[in-house]
Design goal:
Strand order of the largest sheet: 3-2-6
Strand content: 25-35%
Number of strands: 11
Number of helices: 7
Shape: globular
Structural class: alpha+beta
């Protein structure tokens, strides 16, 4: 199935905008393509780069080290690095660049979403590690990303309507910290809709 599931402009911005991360307890900005690494998740091989996706986590979570990494198919990031280095993504060139490369960014593949979350730290003085794995495939005419994000929003909307959840402008991690009710309900309902979520 030929598809492009993201805004081309947003995609390019991931490679040109500095990525904010926490290292040694400090928020710093780094070049997202300064280090490209290979990673294997389940039966898939990807390359990964540090992306600017922490947003509210930068302020709401006290951490010595915190970063988001985004996955791409093998070979993608080196090509992007060359295009960026040649100036194709500069503001004055990006419109023309997208006219050329956007049609080439469509691909034939089964649509899926995959995510791993690792955490390591101390809880009440005791060392703890946590690992979550999420996997989902397109189904019933919905892309996997539409399923993962849309179902999550729907569950939270129901929780607010029932009065079972705090409401207002709330960052997602705050909901996640209410593990005894909100978080548990969200995970349960996502699983009921066929989204794989495992913890170990």
């Amino acid at each position: 199935m030929l598809q492009i599931t993201w805004s081309s402009y947003s995609l390019i911005e991931e490679y040109t905008r500095k990525a904010r991360v926490i290292r040694n307890g400090e928020i710093i900005e780094i070049d997202p393509l300064e280090k490209i690494e290979k990673v294997k998740i389940e039966d898939f091989e990807f390359e990964e780069f540090v992306s600017d996706g922490l947003r509210t986590l930068l302020e709401s979570i006290r951490a010595e080290h915190l970063e988001e990494r985004t996955l791409r198919w093998l070979g993608h990031l080196e090509r992007i690095k060359v295009l960026r280095g040649l100036g194709f993504f500069k503001p004055e060139n990006v419109e023309f660049t997208l006219k050329v490369i956007a049609p080439l960014m469509q691909y034939e593949s089964d649509d899926f979403s995959i995510m791993e979350v690792y955490g390591r730290g101390r809880l009440n003085g005791e060392k703890k590690e946590i690992h979550y794995f999420l996997y989902d495939k397109a189904k019933d005419g919905f892309t996997s990303m539409a399923r993962v994000t849309g179902f999550t929003a729907a569950v939270i909307t129901r929780l607010v309507a029932e009065g079972s959840c705090i409401y207002g402008v709330i960052s997602p991690e705050i909901l996640g910290m209410r593990a005894d009710d909100t978080f548990t309900r969200i995970i349960k309902e996502l699983k009921e809709r066929g989204i794989t979520i495992e913890r170990w």
